[in-house]
Design brief:
The structure is a homodimer.
Chain A lengths: L4 E7 L3 E6 L4 H7 L18 E6 L7 H9 L6 E3 L9 E5 L7 E3 L8 E3 L4 E6 L12 H8 L9 H8 L1 H4 L5 E6 L3 E7 L7 E7 L3 E8 L5 E8 L9 H10 L1 H26 L6 E8 L1 H7 L5 H4 L13 E2 H4 L8 E4 L9 H9 L8 E6 L5 E6 L2 E6 L21 E7 L3 E5 L7 E2 L1 H13 L15 E3 L5 E3 H24 L9 E5 L8 H7 L10 E5 L1 H11 L1 H13 L1 E2 L8 H7 L12
Parallel strand pairs in A: 1-5, 11-14, 14-16, 17-25, 19-27, 20-22, 25-26
Antiparallel strand pairs in A: 1-2, 3-4, 3-5, 6-7, 8-9, 9-10, 11-12, 12-13, 15-16, 17-18, 18-19, 20-21, 23-24
Helix pairs in contact in A: 6-7, 11-15, 11-16, 12-14, 13-17, 15-16
Bound molecules: FE2/S2 (inorganic) cluster (2 copies).
Amino acid sequence: MSETSFTVEILPDRIKVRAKAGENLADILARAGIPLSLYCHERGICGKCAVRILSGALPFPAAQEAALIEGRGLGPDHRLACLYEVRGDVVLETLPGSRLERIAVIESGASPMAFIDPAVRKLPLVLEKPSLYSPTAIADSLRAALRSPRLILPLGALSKLGGSPALAPARPIIAVLYDDVEVLDIESEEGGGEIFGLAVDLGTSTVAAELVDLRTGKVVDRTAAVNAQNAYGADVVSRITFAFENPDNLRRLKHAAVQLINDMAGTMSRRSGVARHRIYDAVVAGNTAMNHILCGVAVDSLALAPFHAVFSALPALPASEIGLALHPQARVYCAPNIKSFVGGDITAGLVASEFTAQPGTSLYIDLGTNGEIVLKKGRDFVTTSTAAGPAFEGMNISCGMLAIAGAIHRAGWDNGFKFGTIDDLPPQGVCGTGLVDILATAVARGLLGRDGRIVGPEKRLRLTDRLALTQQDVRDVQLAVAAVRSGVRLLLREFRISVADLDRVVVAGAFGSSLDIANAVSLGLLPNLPEGKTVFIGNASLAGARLMLLARPARAAAEDLAARISHISLATRPDFQDEFIRGLEFAPYPEEQP
Amino acid sequence: MSETSFTVEILPDRIKVRAKAGENLADILARAGIPLSLYCHERGICGKCAVRILSGALPFPAAQEAALIEGRGLGPDHRLACLYEVRGDVVLETLPGSRLERIAVIESGASPMAFIDPAVRKLPLVLEKPSLYSPTAIADSLRAALRSPRLILPLGALSKLGGSPALAPARPIIAVLYDDVEVLDIESEEGGGEIFGLAVDLGTSTVAAELVDLRTGKVVDRTAAVNAQNAYGADVVSRITFAFENPDNLRRLKHAAVQLINDMAGTMSRRSGVARHRIYDAVVAGNTAMNHILCGVAVDSLALAPFHAVFSALPALPASEIGLALHPQARVYCAPNIKSFVGGDITAGLVASEFTAQPGTSLYIDLGTNGEIVLKKGRDFVTTSTAAGPAFEGMNISCGMLAIAGAIHRAGWDNGFKFGTIDDLPPQGVCGTGLVDILATAVARGLLGRDGRIVGPEKRLRLTDRLALTQQDVRDVQLAVAAVRSGVRLLLREFRISVADLDRVVVAGAFGSSLDIANAVSLGLLPNLPEGKTVFIGNASLAGARLMLLARPARAAAEDLAARISHISLATRPDFQDEFIRGLEFAPYPEEQP
Ligand code: FES
Ligand code: FES
């Protein structure tokens, strides 16, 4: 054993690791699988990485380190791990609040955990007292205090620094840092440490949003609404066409989305008591057209063949540039698009479900308006989008509705249809998962032919006194099922594999709180996998937006994924039509290799 | 001689240099003192670095290189220097337009030359034709065409990329690049290659501006006006106090400056026929308070002891954030302040006069409202500012005026005062250099005592039928002279040197088109140096702003200088009062060591 190697024992875990002389304790802990909350990024100014040194050297702390330890009410045997260099064997104990926290990303189905690492952080500071003899500009004093020579200081923050409150001697100020390099704001202590974020799933048909506490990862409130852009066209294509007509139309669409998100943020702010200016960051997951329109970027290129996106990934933008009324310096990040055709809603869902991290062969199906499908085999990814239409989101269905309170979301048979509704309210309509259950039950009971024809003279599937499905409703679902199935089969064909080769199917979508997999299989919507291998994860786009809000590495992962996936355009595939027509049957996937 | 070393001969200069195998021809030329205009930064997409290979290898050019060479009407013996790797002896000839151009920075006095290297460049491009089979987002096609994976694309530029004109197949677009990394705009060919910049000297009393062609370095138009902020206080202190009173006042001051600069830009645009949206970049040189106010940054810290600046250097900001109505995506750069006390007007003047580059011991005096002085000895710099007041700018003087048409700017004696006026118009008032001449002449003729008292009962120095200087006017100049002289002497004392040790004195200021050095020496305004060692360079702040507009390295030089200079506060020097009172005499500097 070399002389310059030591043992570090970590309590209470009793984990022992070897460390090189001079190695940083924070790095050693991370290597040992016990990452600390390096809140200030190892600048030695937040004090959150303090540990107790039970045995080992206790070098004399610098004034700031001592003050931080004392400020947390800790004893003289504590040190900041980010400043501690190992020079001998050490036994240490981590403190309850010191470890990096993990949060669950998705509540149902797959439940990956993520470390909380938001882009926005607040650091309390006391600036060096200015004097005539050290004519440092205040901004440079702040750079010194934050140990960030390259700090970006927008004019708003500079003005706060030059204003009287910040000049009161020895008064702590709070620097609101974005992505470690930019100061969003300078606040006084009264402002407190509150940091909230807004996660938005900007769907073509429906918009869902969450207000998230960026310190704890807790969802403070959530809300959903029909996309106000519906007034200008029910589907993506009609909205793109509308925007293409003239620039004012683009502005109208953008304004409708911005206004809706602002209203939703306002509602959640009111209900939760969280001031809007405490929302410093937002992540929006939407399909390619949605995020282009939200950013006010002309979509002519999406209107004209060969239908190219203008951008795939964007840096975080000032929310004010988009028009979002949050903190005046808040940022907004759009989940990246996969090349031109598959949107940020899908990359968000993929990172939320940890699709990339799983071994083996997996299929991801998002049952939204576009029916996007991603197939992963080892390290290779291929994706396509299908024109499933908004049937699963309850749109275009005579008694369809969003998956909100009062929606029929489960159905079975007991001498007639039996329904479960969201929040157990009297049934007001049918949401996507309810449709799947109803149609599968109707086929099983002989009320509906496998060809989609409603049996009997009434040509309606009567559900309750007030609710019924028409032949047209059934046809809409039938087309959607066929679109998804043919997309899945073409992707499998691309990788020369069959359903039996799939290790896992992940189904995402905002169309219900749970999906009866067996019913979806019997209709031919999903391939038939052994029990437990198909999971429904609900609105993964929203979960992904929340994840990108809470953990910056998820953004990089999404961008990396977006850059790597290859894309198949169904329109260019001669075998698609045939596959599609064969899929127009309410029956399980055919057995043969696709 | 090693095998891997070759000879490169450059015609028409007949310069021969050695080059290593694989070395880039553009680098070799720069090393030989013949830098080429590497307009696209050696990306091989502008074609401006083409040279003729008279002897040596002519490797087969890639399609784009061949197209660029052909596009310039050059023969097959031409290659792009930035792509040419030396693999044997080469004889080459540079083309007339290929060399990096130099421009004179200051017309009078010192005349350093600078290479033109503006922050804004226009690069014509043809984007790869999109297809269904290569679903690259248009922004990524642009990144590929510009060979800049890290390209920053603001939403405005993205929207242009998504708009129909940019989508027309094989139609060239023009990318307007800022600082090599950010796309300010996407233009169509019709826009042409025009690139203009705005240089502004934002003085406390007067504002001067130039419209500059960033391709040629030519000043297209210039204009000057009284600072509209005068309505809120004639000097810096009264304006800071006004702004400190309430935030609306700060906004008023900011608005006055922004409005004035916009008006000046509008005037020059009208007169020259240069559209305002062809102005992509601006540099503003102003003192600390002026640039804080222009940026809307609270100046409370400049109002309260110990009078600290909020910032010293700022990155280039969107002009729209400041409120300047130029190209919608134009940038504005503020010349950096030296610590808290000496402004960007001085750093601008220092880089314009190449003060730092000169060997030996030099003194820089800016005769503006604050009378800033910089002393350089070897690599050490020290600076101070004196409360000279605006007398030299014609302010507070009963018949004072700016150094504009009709101002008396020279005076002598021939049986009475004899005057020269700017543009030879009938005299309408006296500018700063005129004041110096008049007072020096009056002292020499016995009309004015060395103590500043006007001789004779009238207590006025009658100049013309309509113009005269009052006793109060003389006192104002006297105080200004004493402030500057005591500042100079204290700086000399700081470095323990005397006037005789000075190699050079550079006098800057917007107070006349030329300064009679002998008269200034006789009044005690300037130290007495041998003939030719004192130069007057006029409005060096404006020249410096122009230089930073035309040559980016000047910005880095100014920031470096600002960070390095040490500062003396006269207020903290116990010996200042004594020096000041001794300076209240219209007489040459005392001989003794200060
Ligand atoms: S990480 Fe903040 S003090 Fe160590
Ligand atoms: S520098 Fe532009 S092509 Fe060589």
